[in-house]
Amino acid sequence: MEKSRFKVLAETGIMSRPATRLVMAAQEYTSDVTLTYNDRTVNLKSIMGVMSLGIPQDSYIEIEINGDDEKEAMAGIEDYLQKEGIVEKVTMDADA
Questions:
Q1: pLDDT tens figures, 31-64
Q2: Which of 4, 18, 41, 62 lies at a C-alpha separation of 20 to 30 Å from 92?
Q3: CA angle 58-80-49, nearest 5°?
Q4: For the domain that residue 16 is a member of, what is the CATH number?
Q5: The model's pTM
Q6: Number of domains in the chain
């Protein structure tokens, strides 16, 4: 299992274009990928699930990945999120 926590930096949060691209990035891997925000967890490969969370700027999210390519998947998803300026990685014990 790979698990990381992030703070959302994007002014628009994780909605519309960022959400669509994030889902597309997750779909490149065979592992199960989930996104948690405000105690709600959704499949990160589902655009409807991600959009239903309504994730705003300055919120905290967690991504958990389980499967054969979990390390590669986490590296790829983190790379996408950080290159696009959508999030910054934070330690798992940071205050939300």
A1: 999 999 999 999 999 999 999 999 999 999 999 9
A2: 18
A3: 65
A4: 3.30.1340.10
A5: 0.92
A6: 1
Give the number of other CB atoms < 10 A from CB of residue 19. Answer: 23
Q: Is residue 15 part of a domain?
A: yes
Domain for residue 49, yes or no?
yes
95 inside domain? no
State how far the Cα of 67 lies from the Cα of 35, in Å rounded to an integer. Answer: 15
Note the residue count of the chain. Answer: 96
Confirm whether 96 is domain-assigned.
Answer: no
- CA distances, 2 to each of 15, 59, 69, 94 (Å): 24, 20, 10, 17
Q: How far apart are CA 71 and CA 95, in angstroms?
A: 25
Residue 70 · residue 31 · CB < 8 Å: yes
* Domain carrying residue 32: 2-90
